[in-house]
Amino acid sequence: MDHLVFEVGLAIALIAAAGLISSKLRFSVIPFYILIGMAVGPHAMELWHFDFRFIESAPFIDFMGRIGVLFLLFYLGLEFSVGRLIKSGRSIAVGGTIYIGINFTLGLALGFLSGFPVAETLVIAGITTISSSAIAAKVLVDLKRTANAETEMILGIIMFEDVFLAVYISILSGLVLSDSSSLGGVLLSALIALGFMLAVIIIGRKAVPLLNRILRIRSNEVFGLVVFGSLFLVAGFSETIHVAEAIGALLVGLVLAETEHAKRIEHLIVPFRDFFGALFFFSFGLSIDPLSLGGNAIWLALAAVLLTLFGNIWAGMLAGRTASLSPKASANIGLTIVARGEFSIIMANLGKEGGLLDIVQPFAAIYVLILAILGPLLTKQSKPIFNMLNKIFKFKDPRLRKKESKSAQL
């Protein structure tokens, strides 16, 4: 541990260099953070005092990356509000079901058509279904789209995915790790996850007057400690009841967005969001060994990427239509959450623990890497992508349909 501080300093310097390059090229910074992380790691070299293998510091960097995800989702919650989310409850449930249904079905089809056994197919379907909440949050913030009409649907789908993930991991763990799964246990896990989310939202909204009084703190130091303590306590408790800690952070942000202190909290959080968020993407790249990527896994990953792009755009268009969003906003839904990341890696690790086929790990790494890089780029170019698709499919705005039907009735 003697060189921990030096290694962390080296990691931050590399991240800063990647950020400078991305700003010069005017590209999304996320792919550069991931790629610089991939370029170093256990396979890299040691040059004098500069150990690019990051052996000692990797666990610590990984932990700081986890904190980065919490800040990203917490900030996204602050930019939104519980009130807006509740108003869109029905359309979010429908949109989330559509999104999960389409992507999960395509993942199953990929696994079965590729000739994999049932267990491997179920893991592959899990890998290709769940989007990266961290990347989605970063993209929304970077592109200043938090106030867009489609953002509430995007947030709703992210939360809906977490309920699905809680159920699916329960089922998959039973099948892959112990060859059995209790239906009662699965249902209980789902109900606990859903109940916890609803409880935080409902109780948090009722407690807004109390929170306003509690947070009237003059000292910035004490104010920061109270906010950070609340964030980490709720996020950490979420993890203990099988709700992703990132969703716990999002819920805290949604509740505090209703208070009169939202702007002050936002100002406090931004530097931490940027710093620890960058470390998350670097640590994500650090976990991928480029020397292990190859063989049949590449072709399977490319096929999965194409299916995911198709499925996401299709699901986004359908989900947006149910919420009466414009075709352009609907396309933004699918493109914003097309990236895959932390949850897909969790699924792949579950397959590794269960002793499934070796191809699952490299497949997941290549698939996640491509979409983690491609997702932010596609989101940034969503307007020309939509214009191209619109020329082919001639999308019609559902709001115009309603006006036309009203006119016909008159």
What are its keywords?
single chain; 410 residues; mainly alpha; two-stranded antiparallel sheet; 78% helix; globular
Describe the structure.
This protein has 410 residues and is mainly α. Helix content is 78%, strand content 1%. It has 19 helices and two strands. A two-stranded antiparallel ribbon has the order 1-2. Helix 5 crosses helix 6. The protein is globular, with a radius of gyration of 22 Å. The model has no long low-confidence stretch (mean pLDDT 85).
What's the SSE pattern?
Answer: HHEEHHHHHHHHHHHHHHHHH
Strand order of the largest sheet: 1-2
Work out the oligomeric state of the chains in this entry: single chain
Helicity range: over 70%
- Sketch the major β-sheet: 2 strands, antiparallel
What Rg do the Cα atoms give?
22 Å
Distance between the termini: 77 Å
The number of helical elements comes to 19
